[in-house]
Write a structure and sequence with these properties.
6-stranded mixed beta sheet; 757 residues; zinc; RAS p21 protein activator 4B; metal-binding; alpha+beta; globular; 35% helix
Length: 757
């Protein structure tokens, strides 16, 4: 049994930020820290005081974390980035509102005395004496202290205070991992109620010393002759009065939700998993159709989460294709109009979206990556709507005259035709690159739609069904928001965003098979019609080849892919090399392209992918592939061994124990993460528990119908039996949670905490 904590974070936008640049504007971005460890950095939005990010993240983190902090920064090219303000959410606050935070909150000033981090190692002992007891405090070491000096380190010392008496340790120069091993003694009076205060400071020769954190210890809880030794988390100095500057630094709109799950052993979830898998294997022939019942009882707001959890569960059981095929049949059985097929946010549509992101993200990068990169590199002004053309945006130089509106429209059409043609050509060549399980799923979709809508008048319907997912719900969103699909590191500027939007519209027109309705919607897209018509023929040919995969070919392709270790991360990293010594030493950066799989970390001098990865994404990926490493060290040295000592803690033994603990628990969720079957089963159980009352009501309706003879009895079990089994499984899981040390899981809350200005 294990407790799993995850944090859903959506950084929406900011407003009324202060101007940090001489131009009267700012270049804001956000950094998210968990217990002072940076885990997320948003894109920079240039030259604005009201930035929009709209970035979502899922973070897995240890249940013992303390705070989540959001820092709004102003990026500067020539100097250190400015801190605008922050929002800090303690874990206790998040846990008391499981529905999460949503809304605007004021940014507060970043006080250096509150920006503390790290831990200090102390040994405390009360020794008996002839006249009075003596308090012995041994200051052993500290780790992960905040760097306060320009050299990226600090010069820490410790100040121990008790009853007005103060003693200090020696100063350790240039280290965030100092070791002191110094002991101080104080005389204790009987019944003393004072506290022992241990403060850590950064020594400065010229300016005042910087505060690094403190620990306050209640002496009364210490027992005579029983020493206590432990690591203590450094706390900020909250004795100073806070400045009332709320509202002066602007506001930040956030959505934050903490989820704690107590995951039981795998054996506890087997009845639930087996029951759901049995329903999927039976398909439309099943007596109870639990999948259909789950869809009926799932609200719109949580349908995406339920679809993702179910998909990952069946993906781990090798039944993803069968699960999606069942959803296709269920939706087709209640659809009579072809123009509404798979256009709603049904369980089938949401599950297919999740499936394409889980199984097809690498394929998407291979097809779209080069085209998206070219659009970003060219930065051309593109516009087809005459009402939005601004000739001044095109610019002119020297004696060249400005372009006319007609010339701008024609040049824009040529640019878009080139991008659309390149994309369709890349798509046509990508049949063999498409994952076998994706091809097999599209084959089932194509066949089911053709069986449901036969006849020459519905010839295009199976093709449109495939493109409704491939083009409208996968490729088009990735084109419009490449950063959210990890195709680019930064958001596009206004000019590039418009080009991407027009390209996405053209792809949608091709995906709709150039229907009259799509042409009539935006008549100014007419200059692209020749390329769109040609693209429709290319797309139909591509889909015909894509779904032409037999069971044997599917198994052979899966077997071939299973022999290759799946990539977890790939992209460039800069290796810093320092040459020479002294103040005039020269530095250089060497760019290497790394490729991380679940088996190895390799690198080359040339790129295999142009996707740029942030440092925290690499750290997260390395932690994921090391999670099952039985030889993972508990500590490490964050510095280098230079000369005769480590640069971080000044320890002289090269093979000695590390001075910092290994952080292996905070990871960013990605679509290619390894499946966690027990967690997915727990999340499905949690959802079913929330709709249990509706399931019981449905069970009673089926029971009354069977007694009245209105529900036809099947040759096997009655329709209500599978639902009755599900209700029994839920009861067993509830009892398993109740008997666990952590107790039963909390019921779903009904309130959402609003953050208001």
């Amino acid at each position: 049994m294990a407790k799993r904590s995850s944090l859903y974070i959506r950084i929406v936008e900011g407003k009324n930020l202060p101007a940090k640049d001489i131009t009267g504007s700012s270049d804001p971005y956000c950094i998210v820290k968990v217990d002072n460890e940076p885990i997320i950095r948003t894109a920079t939005v240039w030259k604005t005081l009201c930035p929009f990010w709209g970035e979502e993240y899922q973070v897995h983190l240890p249940p013992t974390f303390h705070t989540v902090a959001f820092y709004v920064m102003d990026e500067d090219a020539l100097s250190r980035d400015d801190v605008i303000g922050k929002v800090c959410l303690p874990r206790d606050t998040l846990a008391s509102h499981p529905k999460g935070f949503s809304g605007w909150t004021h940014l507060t000033e970043v006080d250096p005395d509150e920006e503390v981090q790290g831990e200090i190692h102390l040994r405390l002992e009360v020794q008996p004496g002839a006249r009075a007891c003596r308090l012995r405090c041994s200051v052993l070491e500290a780790r992960d202290l905040a760097p306060k000096d320009r050299n990226g380190a600090s010069d820490p010392f410790v100040r121990v205070r008790y009853k007005g008496r103060t003693q200090e340790t020696s100063i350790v120069k240039k280290s965030c991992y100092p070791r002191w091993n110094e002991t101080f003694e104080f005389e204790l009076e009987e019944g003393a109620t004072e506290v022992l205060c241990v403060e850590t400071w950064d020594w400065d020769l010229v300016s005042r010393n910087d505060f690094l954190g403190k620990v306050v210890i209640d002496i009364q809880r210490l027992q005579v002759a029983q020493p206590e030794e432990s690591w203590f988390r450094l706390q900020p100095d909250q004795t100073k009065s806070r400045r009332h500057d709320e509202g002066n630094l602007g506001s930040l709109q956030l959505e934050v939700r903490l989820r704690d799950e107590m995951v039981l052993p795998s054996s506890c979830y087997q009845p639930l998993v087996q029951l759901l898998c049995h329903e999927v294997k039976l398909g439309m022939q099943g007596p109870g159709q639990l999948i259909s019942l789950i869809e009926e009882t799932t609200s719109t707001e949580c349908r995406q989460d339920v679809a993702t959890n179910l998909l990952k569960l069946f993906l781990g059981q090798g039944l993803a294709k069968d699960f999606l095929d069942l959803l296709f049949q269920l939706e087709l059985s209640r659809t009579s109009e072809t123009n509404t097929l798979f256009r709603s946010n049904s369980l089938a549509s949401k599950s297919m979206e999740s499936f394409l992101k889980v199984a097809g993200m690498q394929y998407l990068h291979g097809v779209l990556g080069p085209i998206i990169n070219k659009v970003f590199e060219e930065k051309k002004y593109v516009e087809l709507d005459p009402s939005k053309v601004e000739v001044k945006d095109v610019g002119c130089s020297g004696l060249h005259r400005p372009q006319t509106e007609a010339e701008v429209l024609e040049q824009s059409a040529q640019t878009l035709r080139a991008h659309l043609g390149a994309l369709l050509s890349a798509l046509s060549r990508s049949v063999r690159a498409c994952p076998a399980v994706v091809r097999a799923t599209f084959r089932q979709l194509f066949r089911r739609v053709r069986e449901r809508f036969p006849g020459a008048q519905h010839e295009n319907v199976p093709f449109i069904a495939v493109t409704s997912f491939l083009c409208l719900r996968f490729f088009s969103p990735a084109i419009m928001s490449p950063k959210l699909f990890h195709l680019r590191e930064r958001h596009a500027d206004a000019r590039t965003s418009r080009t991407l939007l027009l390209l996405a519209k053209a792809v949608q027109n091709v995906g709709n098979m150039d229907t009259p309705a799509s042409r009539a919607k935006e008549a100014w897209m007419e200059p692209l019609q020749p390329t769109v018509r040609q693209g429709v023929a290319q797309l139909k040919d591509f889909i015909t080849k894509l779904v032409d995969i037999e069971e044997k070919d599917e198994l052979d392709l899966q077997r071939t892919l299973s022999l290759q270790a799946p990539p977890v991360k790939e992209g460039p990293l800069f290796i810093h090399r320092t040459k020479g010594k002294g103040p005039l030493m020269s530095s250089s950066f060497k760019k290497l392209y790394f490729f991380l799989t679940t088996e190895a970390l390799s690198f080359a001098k040339t790129p295999s992918s142009k996707c740029v990865n942030e440092l925290n994404q690499w750290l997260s990926a390395l932690r994921k592939v090391s999670i099952n490493n039985t030889g993972l060290l508990g500590s490490y040295h964050p510095g280098v061994f230079r000369g005769d000592k480590w640069s971080c803690c000044h320890q002289k033994e090269k093979t000695g124990q590390g001075c910092d603990k290994t952080r292996s628990r905070v990871t960013l969720q990605e679509w290619n993460d390894p499946l966690d079957h027990d967690l997915e089963a727990q999340l499905i159980y949690r959802h079913l528990l929330g709709v249990e009352a509706m399931l019981w009501e449905r069970h009673r309706e089926l029971s009354r119908g069977a007694e009245a003879g209105t529900v036809p009895a099947s040759p096997g079990e009655a329709p209500k039996d599978s639902l009755a089994q599900l209700l029994r499984v839920l009861q067993d899981l509830r009892e398993a949670h109740s008997s666990s040390p952590a107790g039963s899981p909390p019921s779903e809350p009904n309130c959402l905490l609003e953050l208001q200005t």
